[in-house]
Amino acid sequence: MATHNVKTLIYSSTCATYGEPEKMPITEETPQFPINPYGKAKKMAEDIILDFSKSRKSDMSVMILRYFNVIGSDPEGRLGEAPPPELREHGRISGACFDAALGIIPGLKVKGTDYETADGTCVRDYIDVTDLVDAHVKALNKAERGKVGIYNVGTGRGRSVKEFVEACKKATGVDIKVDYFPRRPGDYAEVYSNPARINRELNWTAQHTELQESLRVAWTWQKKHRSGYADSGRYIF
C-alpha cells in the first residue's frame, strides 16, 4: 500500500481480538488475547499495521475499527447480507435465523446453554450496519497523517442469544424452531463494548439500537432476496 502511495487506511478489525476478557465492558485498553483463529488473524493484521506505522517510512493515516457483532441491512432496501452457500451454516446468527424463518433450513441451532450469563447463552453487543457505516465516515474524516486511532464500534449493551432469537421471531412473525447443542469451541461467554472513546473523539454514537427493528429491516430484504443478489441480477462480493 505504501509503495502505491496509499495515504489513508481504515482497517476492519474485530472485538474477537480481545478473546474473553475478565472485565466488562471492553475498552480499547483491554488486553488482547484472542481465543479463535478469526480473532488471532485480525490481531496479527493489527500488529503488522502498528509496526509499520512506527517505522520512519510511514506517514499513513490509520484508523483501526474493532467491530462488535454486526446486524441489519440498508434501510432503503438496496443492500443486505448474502453469504455464499458454503458459509451460511457457520455465518452470523441473524442469517441462520432468517434461513430458518424462510424454511431454507429446518431450524436454528443454538450452541451453548451453560455459559455464566443470565440465561446461559452467549451475550454479544449487536451493532446495526447503518451505524457502522457512519463510524467509517467519521473515522475517515478524522484520520490524521502519521497517526493511528483505535476504536471499539459497539452499542455498549449486551444481548443474549436467547434474547436475539426472540427478537427475530417477532421481527419475522415466524415461530422459529430452536434446537440446543453443546458449546462451540472458541466461543466466549460475554462481550460488549465501552464506546466512550469513539463517542468522545469521533462524535459517534449508535443510533439504531432497537434489536427487533434492526432485524425487521434486515428481514424485509431477506424475504425479497431468498437467493441473495442473484434475485436482483447482480452480485456483490
From TrEMBL:
Among Pfam families, the record links this protein to: Epimerase
What sequence ranges are listed for the domain NAD-dependent epimerase/dehydratase? 2-154
InterPro entries registered for this protein in UniProt: Epimerase_deHydtase, NAD(P)-bd_dom_sf
The UniProt entry, under PANTHER family, shows: UDP-ARABINOSE 4-EPIMERASE 1-RELATED, UDP-GLUCOSE 4-EPIMERASE
Instruction: Quote the protein name from its UniProt record.
Output: NAD-dependent epimerase/dehydratase domain-containing protein
- In its UniProt entry, the species of origin is given as Aegilops tauschii subsp. strangulata
